[in-house]
Amino acid sequence: MAFLLGAPGVAAAASPSSGAKDDTTYYISIGDSLATGYQPDVDKDTHVAYTDQLYARLKQRVPGLKHIRLGCTGETTESLIKGGTCDYSHATSQLDAALQAMAQHRGKVAYVTLSVGANDIQRCVSPAGTLDGTCLNSASRTMGKNLARITGALRKAGTTNTRFVGSTYYNPFLASWLLGAAGQQAAKESAPLIKAGNSGITQVYESTGFKAADVAGAFSSDDFTTQVNMPGAGEVPANVAKICRLTWACTQKDPHPNADGHKVIAGAFAAVLAKTAAPGAGASPAPSGSATPQPGTGAGANHPTTNGDLAETGASSTTPVLAGVGLAVAAAGAAAVSYARRRRTGEGN
User: Fold this and answer.
1) Cβ contact 339:348 at 8 Å
2) 174 pLDDT exceeds 50?
3) Neighbours of 44 (CB within 10 A)
4) Are 211 and 164 in contact (CB under 8 A)?
5) What region, left, alpha or beta, does residue 139 occupy, with left being phi > 0 and alpha being psi -120 to 50 degrees?
6) pLDDT per residue as tens digits for the range 103-116
7) Alpha-carbon distance 69 to 188, whole Å?
8) pTM here?
9) What are phi and psi of 32, to 5 degrees?
10) For residue 55, how many C-alpha atoms fall within 13 Å in the half-sphere facing its CB?
11) 290: which of 14, 239, 266, 342 is 20 to 30 A away, CA to CA?
12) pLDDT by residue (tens digit) across 135-166?
């Protein structure tokens, strides 16, 4: 896909000593294992992450752009707010680290991307792959409120120079199509639930000033009509073929996207940014020090640094699930919309 993206209209700081302009701008990536590029075949985070691939595209048009890579494998919407999964020096959580970076570089943060929520649901899955209904209901409500809180805080910390984009969900449950008639029925039933969830999540993004990257559309998640010949499986729907080609769901029963999947996700984010009008002039930037809060060194620290030093967080704690979770996604989307509306009318905290 041709990537046509103009440089953002961020304010430039003048050096007191030389009078030269500082053209450095920042892209802050936030989220879970999607943001860190976790790959199950090597059991670690990698530079195939959509955030890294998107940064490479953005930097072609914005040479002074730097990447503040804050993602944390295993992060939930709750831990992103409160901390506890990865360590950030001088910050209590990933959200706190992001807000500090945005304050430090106010007026110079051009892009913020977010992908989080899948682990909220996965934590309710047993090792056998069954869902705890009580946990699921609670997680859905909490996820919706947290997502609205996260996006609202980030948007408030930004300026008119900042473009915010959040991710919708692709549907890894389509992999169950390969399990026979029952699996095909489960795959079909998951599609409208994921679609409803994505609709709700998109409404939350829009209500808090984010754009939504149509990852589901990029993965052709609803296309059961087009038939594709897949080696070893014969004729399958296009959405099934894509989920097998772009994730590990069909080979390792792991829902994480592979390198090709991350490329497609990066393209979905890039498409939104390419269509978004260039931001206007914002507040003058504060003097900059280091590019990002320095990482902690405790157990599980993810060591985020500018321009994407990798987080050595190890394996994801998630367990693959091929049915049932779509309902939770839909519930989470509905809860998030409700919470965002209450915040706008002054009812939320």
Assistant:
1) yes
2) yes
3) 17
4) yes
5) alpha
6) 999 999 999 999 99
7) 36
8) 0.78
9) -110, -145
10) 25
11) 266
12) 766 777 788 889 999 999 999 999 999 999 99
